[in-house]
Amino acid sequence: MTSTILYTGKTHTTGGREGQSRSDDGRLDVKLSTPGSAGAGTNPEQLFGAGWSACFIGAMTHAARASKIALPAGTAVSAEIGLGNGESGYFLQAHLTVSLPGLDRDVAQSLIDAAHQTCPYSKATRGNIDVAITLA
Questions:
Q1: Percent of the chain with pLDDT over 90
Q2: Domain 44-135: which topology?
Q3: What is the Cα 110 distance to its own chain's centre?
Q4: Which CATH architecture is the domain 8-42 placed in?
Q5: Which helix (H) or strand (E) element contains residue 33?
Q6: What's the whole-model pTM score?
Q7: 76-84 long-range CB contacts below 8 Å, 24 or more apart?
Q8: What gap in Å lies between CA 41 and CA 55, rounded to an integer?
């Protein structure tokens, strides 16, 4: 089976959690700050949650099209990316809350399950971090 890279996002970050991150095309230019600090910027956990949420909606859209179902206009995913510290060091955990207003719960859950199997973020984190996905 051959693979094709569809897109490569390129960023350059300086200063770590108290720095700046920019994309090569200039579309992303954000200040970074430590989670919970009074810093003016965002943090990697928020960026990861935003990326995963957007990707997950795309995966649900794909699953819905395959099932000839229209996603409701109010479709949304809220992500909570937790940064923790334990005996083995720092770790991440995630909780996605999916809103598919107006869809039958069984249909909505089947779209969520399908999306979690195909979403690249879900695949990348599978078996690596604790993930919970809830239908709102």
A1: 94
A2: GMP Synthetase; Chain A, domain 3 (3.30.300)
A3: 19
A4: Single Sheet (2.20)
A5: none
A6: 0.94
A7: 77/52, 77/53, 78/53, 79/48, 79/49, 79/50, 79/52, 79/53, 80/49, 81/45, 81/46, 81/48, 81/49, 81/52, 82/45, 83/35, 83/45
A8: 23
Residue 13 has pLDDT above 80, yes or no: yes
Say if residues 129 and 106 touch (Cβ distance below 8 Å).
no
**How many Cα atoms within 13 Å fall on the side-chain side of residue 107?**
15
For 56, phi and psi rounded to 5 degrees? -65, -40
Residue 29, both tokens: 């230019």
Same fold, 8-42 and 44-135: no
Domain parsing of the chain, residue ranges: 8-42, 44-135
What pLDDT does 36 receive?
A: 87
Cβ(55)–Cβ(119) below 8 Å: yes
Residues 47-87: pLDDT tens digits? Answer: 999 999 999 999 999 999 999 999 999 999 999 999 999 99
